[in-house]
Amino acid sequence: MKRLARETMQESGQVVAQAMQGLPEGAAVQMTGMHNQKRTVQRVRQQANPIPRQPNSIAELDIPPHLTILPNGEQFLLHDSGQDAGNNR
Fold first, then answer.
1. Same domain, 6 and 34
2. Spatial separation of the C-alpha atoms in residues 42 and 51, rounded to whole Å
3. Does residue 7 sit in the same domain as residue 34?
4. 45 and 30 in one domain?
């Protein structure tokens, strides 16, 4: 389930359902509730792709590479002049 959470952008409930499909019935019964499983998926995603802190100015804005690409693989950010450009970004 954690691998699916990191590798897909499906909704949390879909990730949990997909992970539970392959489990034997006895194992599925022992799993914690759906809410806890969804929270696990969300925590894994937050750890794998942390959200950057809010910058105080445009010069402090740093966009991590994983946020420049859409879930379908398309380039979202075409050009970033970087922090060296200061307020001329």
1. yes
2. 13
3. yes
4. yes
In this prediction the pTM is 0.52
Tell me how many domains the chain contains: 2
Residue 42 has which token pair? 């969300």
pLDDT of res. 83: 64
DSSP track, 40-82? HHHHHHHHHSPPPPPPSSGGG----GGGSB-TTS-BS------
Same domain for 13 and 45?
yes
Q: Are residues 42 and 63 in the same domain?
A: no
Task: Note the pLDDT of residue 41.
Answer: 93
Helix (H, G, I), strand (E, B) or coil at 22: coil
Query: Phi, psi (5° rounding) for residue 69?
Result: -125, 135
Across the chain, which has 89 residues, the per-10-residue mean pLDDT values are 85 88 76 85 87 80 81 80 63
What does the alpha-carbon distance between residue 13 and residue 19 come to, in Å, rounded to a whole number? 10
